[in-house]
Amino acid sequence: MEMTTKTVATSAGEIQYHAAGEGPPLLYLHPAAGFRLSGPIERLATAFRVIAPVVPGFDGTPMLDGLSSVPGIADLYSEVIESLADGKCDVVGQSLGAWIGAWLAIKYPEKVEPLVLASPAGFRHPDSPPLSFEPEIMLKQLFAYPEKRPPETKTAEQLAGNREAIKHYGIGAAWDEDLNRRIGEIGCLTLVVHGTKDVRVPLEAVQKLRRDIPHSHLVFVYDAAHSVEVDQPERVAALYMDFLQRGEAFIVNSDSKSEAA
Fold first, then answer.
1. Residue 30 three-state SS
2. How many whole angstroms separate alpha carbon 212 and alpha carbon 67?
3. 256, pLDDT greater than 60
4. What is the distance between the alpha carbons of residues 52 and 55, in angstroms, rounded to a whole number?
């Protein structure tokens, strides 16, 4: 599947986005590795118009003056929803994208419904051991099955730029005190997705999200590390689709005769 790449104007400047598919609009928010086409994204594009903005500074895009925080990124993405999604859409965020998506749902509740927070970053308490960014350690922590990773398509300059963007936005700390304090303000139906082998997002963090977000569900993806979309693409794609298309009823088997119960 090919995605088109375009730009959209915001109050801070133009940002790049990728798009594919037709149907209701869905905002897909990429992790700190930058945007990569995955099996779940391809599946989503069969039923939705997927709009995937690139965080300024990632994947060779320019930084924007005055933009230096995750809540600030959410502010810009609210403008993207206005411009490209008629003011409201489904939101799926992976890792950093989930961090942004959570802020988007808190600050702009009228624009998000429903919300998927997959491997959500921003909730690793400072008392936890610090995250490692050593390549060999990261590889083991990000992927239960590193052989499933798609071939690298980003240039060395883009990869270096992504690392600088992580520093610029303060993402490496993986802890957002304000977000943790306000997470219960998310009012939309929310699905939290966690890999059973994910050590970068503590189990306690996703359990807190399940407790604090009023209309939320927590689903574990068996045999997946932090990059659930790479480790278990078919399972995650089916989970996303079922939740987004069926809402609260996603926990009922779609083949069951008691579906309407």
1. coil
2. 29
3. no
4. 10
Q: Which residue has the tokens 């996303």?
A: 240
Could you read off the pLDDT of 136-172 as tens digits, one per residue?
A: 888 899 999 999 998 899 999 999 999 999 999 999 8
Backbone angles phi, psi at 50, to 5 degrees: -80, 125
Q: Show Cβ contacts of residue 59 under 8 Å, excluding neighbours closer than 6 positions.
A: 16, 34, 35, 154, 158, 161, 162
The widest CA-to-CA distance across the chain, in whole angstroms, is: 55
Domain count, the chain: 1
* Pairing mode of beta strands 112-118, 13-20: unpaired
Question: Are 47 and 72 a contacting pair, CB within 8 Å?
Answer: no
* pLDDT of 255 above 70: no
Note down the domain range covering 209.
4-249
pLDDT digits (tens, 9 = 90+) for 50-80: 999 999 999 999 999 999 999 999 999 999 9
Place of tokens 């980003």: 154
Rounded distance between C-alpha atoms, residue 235 and residue 244, angstroms: 14
What region, left, alpha or beta, does residue 247 occupy, with left being phi > 0 and alpha being psi -120 to 50 degrees?
left
What's the CATH number where 193 sits? 3.40.50.1820
166: nearest Cα among 65, 68, 21: 68
Q: Is residue 55 part of a domain?
A: yes
**Strand arrangement, sheet containing 4-10:** 4-10, 13-20, 49-53, 25-29, 89-94, 112-118, 190-195, 216-221
